[in-house]
Amino acid sequence: MAEYYKVANVSEVPEGTKKIVEVDFVPVLLFNIKGEYFAMEDVCTHDGGPLGEGFLEGEEIECPRHGARFCVKTGKALCMPAVEDIECFPVKVEDDEILVSID
Ligand code: FES
Fold this sequence. Notes:
Blueprint: E1 5-9, E2 18-23, E3 26-33, E4 36-41, E5 55-57, E6 60-62, E7 69-71, E8 88-89, E9 91-94, E10 97-100
Antiparallel strand pairs: 1-10, 2-3, 3-4, 4-8, 5-6, 6-7, 9-10
This protein binds FE2/S2 (inorganic) cluster (FES).
C-alpha cells in the first residue's frame, strides 16, 4: 500500500496558490486549484528549472527558466522547450492535513 507523508496544513495552501515541500528528499510542488489539491515533482523536465518559483496561472505553471508550461493536474508538458511530462503524485486530505505519496 502506498505510504502517504504529511506535507502541509490546508491553511498553508489557499486556493489558487502553490507551496514547495519535500517528501523523502524529493522536491514536490503542491497546488490548490479551486479547492482540489495536486502534487508534482518540483523539477522542470526541460533543464531542471525550479518550477516552484514559476508563475501559476489557472491550471498551468510556467517554468521561470525558459518559459515551458505544464498542466498542474496532469503534469503534461504544454509547450516548448519542454517535451517530457512531469511526474505527478497522489494527494489526499485528512482532517486539515495534506498528505502526498511519492511511491
Ligand atoms: S528549465 Fe524549465 S523551461 Fe528550461
